[in-house]
């Protein structure tokens, strides 16, 4: 484990003088604000939003039981991913390691930032290959991305394994917990206080059903969140999102109900899918989607598209041969899906088996 995070930060970022806004230079309340060249009309939208997101951080801190100093708030977790690349990785030299298959944004962010991404295959049973992950890291490796529960394999990894990697490696271990609210496992969010090279990403796009307002968080050592805040656009979270989120975060009970419904539906859907003869495997899921291996995946996919039902074709992805990724919808939506698949089985499978 690294104790000195600044050793991993890019030298130009350590020395960065961040943008200083009018609201940085005067933070109190006042009757007349003539310091930011705002238009005096059309309140409250004429004002720049809080660049520190203080009220929202306070509220998310309470919700997640983490000190607000450990929080970075991003325009989706995709912003947090990009900013991590920009504070840790020098383009053209440094590299990062990720599991494979996994979420596609790590590769895109790596490519944009001209940072090599070294992919380490999961084991055939979707487990972490700890020796291979360790030996993929070298002096130029700045981050290791572990998505848990993992998209698209839908399983999660043991906290002990992830923490062992963080303890052993001189790199930032970034754990993407976008689906943690659907998982039986506990979040690692409360471990960042004693593991300085651990970053936990979470999002309000999935369990909280707020993908449209773009709100994601990184939970990390205060030194990491401080550098992230220096690099972000000053007003990265707009006023509408901040205000809406403050209200939406009151809906904790509603969110728990949604999660319970989705988990129940996930079970139903899994059982119904297993009854089709062209379904070879439904992988155990710790998320709000199912990875389903079928015979003739393209044919199934295209059949569903014709019925205006869109799932994700993952059949060409490593270890996911023949697999479709299906998000768990409402009871009615899942029935539309399984009815269409019943029709598919009737049209193409049962009628050919004579
Ligand atoms: C959906 C998803 C996200 C969410 O990204 P946002 O930018 O917060 O919407 C992050 N990570 C993974 C692995 C996802 O599948």
Could you explain the architecture of this structure?
- By secondary structure, this protein is of the alpha/beta class.
- Helix content is 36%, strand content 16%.
- It is built from 12 helices and 11 strands.
- Strand 8 (279-282) and strand 9 form a beta hairpin.
- Pyridoxal-5'-phosphate binds next to helix 4.
How would the blueprint of this fold be written?
Blueprint: H1 11-14, H2 22-25, H3 54-64, E1 71-74, H4 77-88, E2 95-100, H5 105-112, E3 116-121, H6 130-136, E4 141-147, H7 159-168, E5 172-176, E6 198-203, E7 216-220, H8 222-231, H9 239-248, H10 252-274, E8 279-282, E9 289-294, H11 297-306, E10 312-313, E11 323-327, H12 331-349
The chain binds pyridoxal-5'-phosphate.
Count of DSSP E strands? Answer: 11
Mean pLDDT: 96
Rough outline: globular
For the termini, the CA-CA separation is: 63 Å
What is the structure about, briefly put?
The protein has 354 residues and is an alpha/beta fold.
Keywords:
alpha/beta, seven-stranded mixed beta sheet, four-stranded antiparallel beta sheet
């Amino acid at each position: 484990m690294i104790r000195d995070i600044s050793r991993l930060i890019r030298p130009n970022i350590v020395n960065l003088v961040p943008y200083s806004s009018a609201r940085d230079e005067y933070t109190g309340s006042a009757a007349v604000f003539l310091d930011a060249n705002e238009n005096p009309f059309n309140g409250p939208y004429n004002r720049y939003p809080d660049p520190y997101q203080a009220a929202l951080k306070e509220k998310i801190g309470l919700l997640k039981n983490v000190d607000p100093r450990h929080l970075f708030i991003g325009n989706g977790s995709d912003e947090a991913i990009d900013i991590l690349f920009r504070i840790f990785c020098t383009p053209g030299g440094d590299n990062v390691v990720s599991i494979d298959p996994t979420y596609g944004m790590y590769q895109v962010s790596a490519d944009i930032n001209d940072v090599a991404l070294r992919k380490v295959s999961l084991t055939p049973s979707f487990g972490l290959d700890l020796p291979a992950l360790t030996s993929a890291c070298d002096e130029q490796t700045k981050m290791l991305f572990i998505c848990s529960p993992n998209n698209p394999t839908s399983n999660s990894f043991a906290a002990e394994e992830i923490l062992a990697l963080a303890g052993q490696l001189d790199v930032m271990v970034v754990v993407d917990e976008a689906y943690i609210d659907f998982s039986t496992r506990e979040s690692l969010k409360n471990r960042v206080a004693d593991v300085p090279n651990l970053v936990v990403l979470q999002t309000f796009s999935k369990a909280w059903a707020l993908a449209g307002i773009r709100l994601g968080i990184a939970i990390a050592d205060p030194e990491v969140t401080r550098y992230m805040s220096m690099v972000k656009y000053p007003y990265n979270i707009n006023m509408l999102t901040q205000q809406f989120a403050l209200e939406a975060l009151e809906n904790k009970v509603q969110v728990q109900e949604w999660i319970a419904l989705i988990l129940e539906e996930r079970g139903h859907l899994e059982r119904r899918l297993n009854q089709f003869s062209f379904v070879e495997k439904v992988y155990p899921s710790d998320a709000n989607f199912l990875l389903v291996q079928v015979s003739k995946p393209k044919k199934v996919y295209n059949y569903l598209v014709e019925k205006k039902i869109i799932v994700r074709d993952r059949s060409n992805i490593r270890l996911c041969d023949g697999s479709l990724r299906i998000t768990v919808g409402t009871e009615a939506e899942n029935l539309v899906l399984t009815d269409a698949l019943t029709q598919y089985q009737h049209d193409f499978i049962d009628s050919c088996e004579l």
